[in-house]
Design goal:
heterodimer; A: mainly beta; 9 strands; B: 10-stranded mixed sheet; two-stranded antiparallel sheet
Amino acid sequence: MSDAYLKAGLPKPAPAPDGLDAPYWEAVAEERLVMQHCQDCGAWQWGPEWICHRCHSQNLAFDDVPLIGRIYSYERVWHPVHPALNEQGPYIIVLVEFPDHDGARMVGNLLGDPRQDVEIGGRVQAVFEHHQDDDPAHTLVHWEVI
Amino acid sequence: MSRTLRGTTAIAGVGETTYYKRGQSPDAEFKLALMAILAACEDAGISPKEVDGFASFSNDRSDPSRLANALGCHDLRFSNMQWGGGGGGGSAAIAHAAASVTTGLAECVVVFRALAQGQFGRFGQGPRSNVVSGGGAFTIPYGLMSPAQSFAMKVMRFMHEHGVGRSALRAISLASYHHAQNNPRAVMHGRPLDAEKYDASRWIVEPFRLFDCCLENDGAAAMVVVPAERAKDFPHPPAYVLSAVTGSHYRAGASVHNTPDYATSNFKTCVPRLYDMAGCKPDDVDVLQCYENFTGGVLMSMVEHGFVEPEECNEFLTKENLIAPSGKLPTNTSGGNLAECYMHGLELNIEAVRQIRGTSPNQVDDVDVSLVVSGPMVTPVSSSIFGSEATL
């Protein structure tokens, strides 16, 4: 797509061959954000794993989380470590926390001016970047300050 | 005392190849490993055929059976690999070697690391595959893929939580480069760094500038571990292993940056075990070698090893405090990963031994306790403490 945050050519995400994270990729294609939620003890966890880290139950669901989170940390990348980014210039990666979901976190890019000041603790909203015609089809989840 | 490594083994010999810039070694990686081991055995005054064990880390490619074959070792009794990437296993490999010697599994174990990044590729580059799945699928497509990028996120959070300024990172880099100028082995010998040059250097990923990042090199390093009762049979004053521990805290390995206690170098559970085994405390440490993958890892490691409170980092972390011989905590006295050589930190363990022997190019006076931090921010990490005979 033309309005991707990063230039094309980075490795594309694909569902894990073992099926562990398939519900996540199905959800983001529908502009929903999900995390693993233990149906026995209620713990939230991310990234995905086969059992609950707290109670060891296998009864984990991928349940919806809000599309709003909080910037836990960030970094502004200047040096390209992949040829696809040679002409990119600086870009911002944010680590977004979900305080009401056991502090679980997700990684994405922060939309807007790549030289903007970034406030740790600031609220951000998810923005879905679809590549559903790509092979493999996928959707990335970015963030913008609200 | 039972169930301890304190004083049960010693480092009898150390050896290093010439340290090269990445891709400039005339020798293959395996040959580099052999050359370092031969040098360490010569330093110890032993025949390489007496070596009966090998311990390494970070998936070193030099297989112990091939080493034993090439060296003509009479009896291979111990071959050991610490799982985990980066330099987190440097002191762990010493722990394992010491444990094997202490328990009688082996008598003379070589700890080594060989690295020819020209021959086998670099660490600091992103993956070249077209598709990624698993944990990397949630980070790499966002341009988060190199070690610097993975760790800058932690350091940014730490500096935010504790109000640490970038001058603290700069001081760490300046100290390493300062020490390298007195060390002819150092790749950056003759390439001094001052504050102006540091400040003018390009960003890699904020908060790291170029000079906050380790080198990439070719070379090899080796150390010979022997029982303490034999320690005085060798030419050099022994550096006794007082402690060596490894590990990481609760869910340090959580994927997609989900470790609950996130802004840490991962030593919080190791450090109490480290000092308990050694029977000493941070104030007793005379000189520190602290693995610089990135200066931010040194910053957090110094805090977690009890040398400075988080809120005091801006005052404590100055070049003057970190340089030998006069600083309050002389650190990375060979030039370390930033300016001597990135030998995955094993060169730091060797420098710690030199400080005990009194043969460092930046010697601190009267060193009895010499501490090494290996591979902060990876998991598992490790630390070790070496002591002079006076500490036993």
